[in-house]
């Protein structure tokens, strides 16, 4: 296929660089990651020149693994034996050599034979691959290997399976899930429990340990059962017969915790998060408000580090939490296509079910050569056995680069002033050029490098100017997640795999062992302490150094993180007080994709202390619309956080613990908001030994009014996983969050968290600790339910970080003691005090609380709780008051799904100003049928009445509905929520939720609904609708509305995608915005491709009836790229652009509209002569603003014609000539020019050319502007 001249289409070539690096042919396996052998071509006709189906290799899930428990596992040992010396050749050319010993004994699931790679790590020779079977523990079943002539690929009757290696970094995967419901009977587990493992680095694992704990053993002090082994594989099942190592009676309604530890040959350890499962109801879904499942601050390490421990538990599945086993050696990709009639494929010990006639397997492997035994099982039951070779080299590097440089000098005659703005015509030496590079590789098992540079076309002195600068992000960058849309290829069919994540000219990612240095896009990740969090998504430099060694708890011995960035986005922190909703609107739209960080917090309203935190994951826990600024939880978040211990007495009718949804994100600034300010900082933490850790954090960020600085030092003492003490000392100046808001109605209205004035600074001290008494006195205290907690916090009003940005000075301290006084009884004693003052020194909170509570199971069904409290607080008139209260709670538990309780509290003594707090409550949970359940509570008392009830009804396994009613006189709220989620068919999913709001001084409603429909495997469509409004009695009404619709087609010969979004924000002003993105690619034949894209955005202020912004970007193109007869290549495109923006931006124009038509072709006359032509037309309208503010229009029509020809004189010499003619009707000007150059290829990678150019300009309106320019130039082109 002919290549276009570099200086014409360099943008296209540069954009292809990441793909070119990935599309190379594997020297050993011949088929690279995005090549697919033709399933219909016989093996003898296989050729690397076949047109690949490039889409297949980037489908991450093409085969669904099935449990490997159906496969008998055998152990076969091999040793290397010498073979005859043979000349080096590619392994793909070694077709079953005589000196290569194969064994005929192959059992399903046999491990791959590891072949010793030559020390030189060059092409493997037959002698290096010779193996001999020396021992086998398999059965005597013998199977014949099907005839195979090439061990790098397997050709079936229909389809093929092949292997390739990939140096692209893929995240290690490790998940352990409970595959069956756990039922108990008479204190024991009824049937064996199966833990299923999914992993992609099983070949590194040399030892594993599965630990099972009681649900209440939150400190992981004493495991019920420990299972061990030395081999794991993908879809491996760990069986537990239910027998415990210590006496324990299993009961319905209880829970079990579990986690998995892995070790490699060097003793490096990986640990999963904590998995949670219910006894008897293993399929029961955990609700987000079940925070007793997620004791984040005392789980895992016990250190309380928010970046490792928060949210470290999940229901039903345990995922990789700490990764210390080095897996950077390489990735083997085992792929297949056209596998018609194939049911399953066994590769080594792993088993995979074939879907859509395709196979895709990723497997981490240490550096070495491997021969995988492969068994193909067909639908009719017959089987065939093969072997598949793959080698992970010690050193591997793929790269491509292009340098295109011009140096020249012109002699100008005529009016030189016309060209005075262009350095090329000043008479001095001028230069221009572009450099682009992409490289990716590994050097040994520890060092990996990804590098990318693209300077764009500009003067040489400006190529690396402003390295911190990043490209501007537009609304279409947010809406479009298909990288192919950014590839301006005139319709050329290219497949892009995103390896580089950068907004600027440079990207560099160097990883050594566990450490890394990055220049590109990243998250700062400064989130390891309570008062010094700084977790933003930025572009720039980030370094992360981690030692290979760890403590006995899995913490890195030393970790140093640093970053620097010139941020072009703004940071926002939004908090939502949960009201039982699934839908939440952020304060800002147009959020930077990937910057959202969502956390559910359990907050004690008495002292604003964060009791617990659960980190949510996008896709699993919520859906995020970056453009709309909308979060949709997969399950409604309850407003009340239940607490079964310590909640007999409460200060408010609805309880003291509340759920909050906290969201940190970056949004795209507009107009004068735009900033380019430096931000830098870092964090270091080291462990003196296994128990003492010292850390420090520092952040500095430029701001408009006052720069922000944050410094912090912390000390950690960790005795065990359940006992630790942390102390933190912090200082801040300025305000961290540019936008800090809280909402009580799901984002319809926001209240800015109060701030200090223009300048602020303050200090914060935090001390917290947990002592598991079992660690100190195991003879006295049991492993479960005995611990002591302490905390102290002192924060100045001027101190600021993301979630602590108010202007209140706060001092709080407390302690809590839990004792398991008997098998069925528990005691809780607590003391806490909190004092908050505003900027004037006035107390807004002054509370002291002493509480004693006991709970006891009187029978198997009756539980009694009794509590006493002495409290001192400010009443509604901000006067000090105190009181003594007594309370009791009696609960009858029918079974694990049904209970009822009554609760009462009485003020037995109080001061005159105390707001009486007598109350009585009744509540319970009932499972009426298998599908219908009820949950409710009603409270009446001196401080108001509260009622909440929820009805859940599962119409079937795929359709659930719920109704929630919340009424609270104390909070002045009255809400009703109705919702449902359903898999209406196997292809159609839908959700619907309505909330009716009546609170404070307004009424409103919040609605959300949506449908996703998989028409078939190639067509997917969906719609969504969100609306919310509050009608206030004495304030401006607020309303937000959003619509979304999309459809995607992915057919064999065309791809079509369209998405439409509409948003209206109505408050004091009404802002309306439309956005749509559309793309279409049609492979008319193997040689003709049609490509089109249409993006449209419009923003209007309906209050002022003014159009705020309008943007249109569209084009349609046709490409002719012959496969067999490569004489003619042709590209054409029509482009329409419109840009209108009345925002306060630093641009000279306010309105632009352009039509552009262009066509380009190149034709090979013969082996020596190529001719090309390009024609283009541009019709452009602009409006400019005078100093007086008056707008004046400018219209131009430009015609362009270009001709080119090249003649290959001899092997390394060619002559090139070009002529262009351009006519500008608006100026009645004509410009034409020609050039001729002689080029010499000095090597395969470097070409130099010297030439002469002539340009002429004629202005028929003002002849004084005519000029002629002549000069010589040198063109240097390098490529690799």
From TrEMBL:
Signal peptide: 1-23
Region (Disordered): 29-92, 291-311
Keyword Signal: yes
Residue stretches of biased makeup (Polar residues): 29-52, 67-83
Keywords: Signal
Protein name: Flagellar motor protein
């Amino acid at each position: 296929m002919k290549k276009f001249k570099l200086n014409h289409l360099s943008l296209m070539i540069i954009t292809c660089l990441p793909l070119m690096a990935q599309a190379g042919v594997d020297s050993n396996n011949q088929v690279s990651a995005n090549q697919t052998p033709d399933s219909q071509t016989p093996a003898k006709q296989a050729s690397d020149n076949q047109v690949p189906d490039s889409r297949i290799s980037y489908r991450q899930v093409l085969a669904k693994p099935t449990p490997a428990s159906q496969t008998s596992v055998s152990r076969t040992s091999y040793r290397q034996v010498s073979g005859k010396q043979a000349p080096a050749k590619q392994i793909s050319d070694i077709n079953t050599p005589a000196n290569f010993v194969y064994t005929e004994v192959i059992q399903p699931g046999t491990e791959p034979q590891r072949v010793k790679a030559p020390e030189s790590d060059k092409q493997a020779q037959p002698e290096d691959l010779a193996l001999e079977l020396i021992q086998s523990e398999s059965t005597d079943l013998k199977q014949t290997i099907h005839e195979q002539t090439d061990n790098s690929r397997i050709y079936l009757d229909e389809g093929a399976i092949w292997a390739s290696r990939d140096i692209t970094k893929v995240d290690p995967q490790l998940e352990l899930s409970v595959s069956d419901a756990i039922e108990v009977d008479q204190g024991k587990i009824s049937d064996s429990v199966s833990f299923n493992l999914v992993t992609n680095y099983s070949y590194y694992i040399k030892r594993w340990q599965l630990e099972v704990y009681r649900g209440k053993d939150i400190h992981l002090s004493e495991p019920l059962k420990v299972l061990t082994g030395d081999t794991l594989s993908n879809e491996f099942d760990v069986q537990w017969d239910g027998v415990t190592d210590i006496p324990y009676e299993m009961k319905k309604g209880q829970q079990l915790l579990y986690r998995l530890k892995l070790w490699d040959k060097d003793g490096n350890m990986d640990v999963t998060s904590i998995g949670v499962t219910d006894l008897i109801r293993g399929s029961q879904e955990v609700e987000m408000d079940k925070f007793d499942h997620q004791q984040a601050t005392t789980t895992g390490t016990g250190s309380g580090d928010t970046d490792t421990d928060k949210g470290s538990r999940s229901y039903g599945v345990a995922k990789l939490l700490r990764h210390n086993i080095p897996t950077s050696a390489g990735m083997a990709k085992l792929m297949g296509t056209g596998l018609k009639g194939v049911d399953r494929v066994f590769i080594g010990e792993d088993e995979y079910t074939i879907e859509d006639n395709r196979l895709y397997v990723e497997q981490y492997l240490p550096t070495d050569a491997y021969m995988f035994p492969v068994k193909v099982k067909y639908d009719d039951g017959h089987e065939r056995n093969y072997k598949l070779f793959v080698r992970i080299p010690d050193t591997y590097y793929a790269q491509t680069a292009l340098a295109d440089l011009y140096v020249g000098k012109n002699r100008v005659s005529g009016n030189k002033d016309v060209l005075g703005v262009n350095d090329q015509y000043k008479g001095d030496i001028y230069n221009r050029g572009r450099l682009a590079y992409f490289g990716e590789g590994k050097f040994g098992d520890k060092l990996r490098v990804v590098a990318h540079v693209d300077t764009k076309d500009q003067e040489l002195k400006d190529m690396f100017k402003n390295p911190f600068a990043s490209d501007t992000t537009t609304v279409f960058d947010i809406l479009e997640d298909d990288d192919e849309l950014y590839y301006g290829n005139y319709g050329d069919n290219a497949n892009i795999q995103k390896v580089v994540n950068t907004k600027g000219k440079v990207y560099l990612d160097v990883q050594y062992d566990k450490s890394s240095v990055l220049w590109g896009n990243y998250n700062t990740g400064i989130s390891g302490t309570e008062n010094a969090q700084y977790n933003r998504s930025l572009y720039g430099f980030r370094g992360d150094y981690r030692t290979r060694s760890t403590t006995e708890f899995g913490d890195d011995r030393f970790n140093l993180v640093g970053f620097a960035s010139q941020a072009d986005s703004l940071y926002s922190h939004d908090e939502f007080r949960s009201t039982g909703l699934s839908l939440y609107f952020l304060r800002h739209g147009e959020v930077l994709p990937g910057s959202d960080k969502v956390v559910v917090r359990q907050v004690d309203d008495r002292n604003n202390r964060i009791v617990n935190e659960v980190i949510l994951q996008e896709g699993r826990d919520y859906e995020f619309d970056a453009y709309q600024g909308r979060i949709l939880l997969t399950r409604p978040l309850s407003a009340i956080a239940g607490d079964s211990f310590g909640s007999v007495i409460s200060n408010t009718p609805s309880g003291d613990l509340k759920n909050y949804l906290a969201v940190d994100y970056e949004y795209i600034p507009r107009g004068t908001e735009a900033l380019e300010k430096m931000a830098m900082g870092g964090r270091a933490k080291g462990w003196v030994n296994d128990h003492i850790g010292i850390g420090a954090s520092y952040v500095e960020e430029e701001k408009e009014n006052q720069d922000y600085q944050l410094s912090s030092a912390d000390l950690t003492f960790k005795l065990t996983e359940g006992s630790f003490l942390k102390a933190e000392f912090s200082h801040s100046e300025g305000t961290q969050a540019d936008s800090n808001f809280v909402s009580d109605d799901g984002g319809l209205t926001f209240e800015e968290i109060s701030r200090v004035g223009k300048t602020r600074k303050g200090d914060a001290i935090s001390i917290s600790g947990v002592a598991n008494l079992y660690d100190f006195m195991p003879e006295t205290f049991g492993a479960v339910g005995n611990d002591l907690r302490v905390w102290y916090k002192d924060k100045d009003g001027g101190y600021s970080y993301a979630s602590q940005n108010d202007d209140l000075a706060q001092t709080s301290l407390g302690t809590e003691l839990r004792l398991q006084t008997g098998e069925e009884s528990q005691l809780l004693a607590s003391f806490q005090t909190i004092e908050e003052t505003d900027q004037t020194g006035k107390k807004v909170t002054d509370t002291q609380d002493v509480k004693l509570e006991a709970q006891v199971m009187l029978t198997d069904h009756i539980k009694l709780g009794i509590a006493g409290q002495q409290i001192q607080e400010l009443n509604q008139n901000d006067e000090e008051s105190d009181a003594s209260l007594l309370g009791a709670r009696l609960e009858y538990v029918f079974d694990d799904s049904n209970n009822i309780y009554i609760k009462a509290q009485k003020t037995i003594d109080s001061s005159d100003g105390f707001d009486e707090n007598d109350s009585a409550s009744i509540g319970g949970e009932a499972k009426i049928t298998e599908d219908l359940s009820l949950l409710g509570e009603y409270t009446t008392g001196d401080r108001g009445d509260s009622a909440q009830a929820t009805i859940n009804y599962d119409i079937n396994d795929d359709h659930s509905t719920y109704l929630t009613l919340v009424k609270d006189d104390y909070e002045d709220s009255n809400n009703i929520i109705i919702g449902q989620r359903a898999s209406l068919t196997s292809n159609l999913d839908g959700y619907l939720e309505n909330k009716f709001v009546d609170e404070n001084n307004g009424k409103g409603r919040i609605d959300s609904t949506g449908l996703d429909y998989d028409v078939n495997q190639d067509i997917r469509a969906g719609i969504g609708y969100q609306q919310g409004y509050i009608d206030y009695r004495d304030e401006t009404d607020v309303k937000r509305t959003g619509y979304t619709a999309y459809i995607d087609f992915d057919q064999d010969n065309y791809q079509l995608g369209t998405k439409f979004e509409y948003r209206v924000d109505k408050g004091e002003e009404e802002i309306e915005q439309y956005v749509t993105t559309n793309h279409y690619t049609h492979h008319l034949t193997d040689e003709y491709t049609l490509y089109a894209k249409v993006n449209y955005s419009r923003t209007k202020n309906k209050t002022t009836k003014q159009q705020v912004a309008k943007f249109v970007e569209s084009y349609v193109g046709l490409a002719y790229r012959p496969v067999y007869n490569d004489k003619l290549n042709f590209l054409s495109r029509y482009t329409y652009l419109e840009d209108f923006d009345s925002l306060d931006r630093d641009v000279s124009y306010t309105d632009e509209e352009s039509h552009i038509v262009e066509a380009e072709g190149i034709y090979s006359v013969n082996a020596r002569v190529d001719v090309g032509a390009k024609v283009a037309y541009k019709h452009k309208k602009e409006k400019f603003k005078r100093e007086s503010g008056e707008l004046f229009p400018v219209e131009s029509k430009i015609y362009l014609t270009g001709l080119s020809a090249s003649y290959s004189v001899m092997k390394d010499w060619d002559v090139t000539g070009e002529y262009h003619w351009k006519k500008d009707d608006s100026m009645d000007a004509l410009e034409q020019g020609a050039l001729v150059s002689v080029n010499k290829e000095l090597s395969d990678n470097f070409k130099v050319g010297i030439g002469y150019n002539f340009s002429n300009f004629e202005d028929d309106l003002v002849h004084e502007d005519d000029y002629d320019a002549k000069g010589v130039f040198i063109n240097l082109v390098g490529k690799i």
